[in-house]
Amino acid sequence: MREFNPGTVAEDRQLSRDARNAGIKLAGILFHKQAVPFEVLITEKNFPPEMISAAADYLREAGCELVTTNVGIKMQRLSWRLIAPVVGEVLAQQGMELDIQIFAQTPSTNDECFAAAAQGADRPMAIMAEAQTQGRGRRGNRWEAKPGQSALVSLLLPGRELSVETLSLAAGLAVAESVEELTGGNPELKWPNDVLIDNHKLSGVLIETRPNVLNPMLTDYVIGVGMNVMQTNKDFPDSLAARATSLNMIGSRKWDVPEVIAVLLGKLYLWCNPLAPGEEIVPLWLSRCRMLERHIRVSCAGRIIEGTVADIDPMEGLIIRDHQGMNHACLASQTTVLRD
């Protein structure tokens, strides 16, 4: 009979922790699915050579798919259970510190962010989910997707004083830059929150706010992003199929959700934490928008306004010039586009 040895148990636990930490670091290095030679891992990435095998074994046991050869290693798929720590590692390598939580299923990632804020969260954090049961867009619209098909992520910015209009523009710009980085395409921004490719909706942004529980004079802001990633045309309901698209429908390669979320969070962090000034955001936002001087009809604060889009203002929102030449400022929170 084997005798119980506390020292051996403690050593085994330490080896397990070391293997996990090494595995997360290795996954962060292999995150973009490019083969990395062992020599590069050791000499350029400072990865301990004695931990490569244990790290790879840990990742495989966690559900990741790895390919190893005599000269290097490549990750073909990241397990959902490791998305939060690995995405955190990828962002940390870029100098971004962000608390990240993941849910297999939740009613709403925005609601999870507000729940964390209500418990006293006092620094930025991200919530992501494989599936949402009550995902929502603007004006009460639902965001629907099968589990694992979409990038569903929300970023909490607690205890701030920000312009919601400017934050909305910054978030849209961050999403557009993410799509450009991932696909090389030229995404278009449609006020206030849609990201389009060839006039087909790829992504939407929802900004929500609540008073901060620690200081009611301040506000908690949540940026919710839904992006279609793995859908094909048949995955969209008939009402959306003609005007929706996904990354895997427009790109020359197939993307998976973890890659997309890492890029999204990196761009959101850079543009929104801290929030870039409106005079920096607006010109870049407008360079991706084709709405200027177009005819538009909206419902704004209970009024119907019709005219042409004259400008986008970081504080006042959409500026519409009516047929009498009068300008109307339409805040995103009060406005629905009826026809453009």
Run of helices and strands: HEHHEEHEHEEHEEEEHHHHEEEEE
User: Any low-confidence stretches, pLDDT <50, length ≥5?
Assistant: 1-12
The major beta sheet can be summarized as: 7 strands, mixed
> What CATH architecture of the largest domain do you see?
2-Layer Sandwich
> How would you describe the oligomerization state of the chains in this entry?
single chain
Which structural class do you get from the secondary structure elements?
Answer: alpha+beta
CATH homologous superfamily descriptor of the largest domain: Bira Bifunctional Protein, Domain 2
End-to-end C-alpha gap: 79 Å
- The CATH class of the largest domain is identified as Alpha Beta
Helix content: 25-40%
How many domains make up the 3D coordinates? 3
The residue-averaged pLDDT reads: 90
Q: Specify the number of helices.
A: 10
Count the beta strands.
15
Write a concise synopsis of the structure shown.
This protein has 340 residues and is of the alpha+beta class.
Account of the protein in words:
The chain folds into three domains: 6-77; 80-286, BirA Bifunctional Protein, domain 2 (2-Layer Sandwich), CATH 3.30.930; 295-339, SH3 type barrels (Roll), CATH 2.30.30. It is 34% helix and 29% strand. The chain has helices spanning 6-29, 38-43, 52-61, 83-93, 109-118, 164-183, 238-241, 247-250, 257-272, 278-286; strands at 36-37, 65-68, 72-77, 99-106, 125-132, 150-160, 188-190, 194-197, 200-211, 219-228, 295-300, 303-313, 317-322, 327-330, 335-339. The strands form three sheets. Strands 4-5-6-10-9-8-7 form a seven-stranded mixed beta sheet, with helices on both faces. Helix 6 packs across helix 9 (257-272) and helix 6 (164-183) packs across helix 10 (278-286). The radius of gyration is 23 Å and the shape is globular.
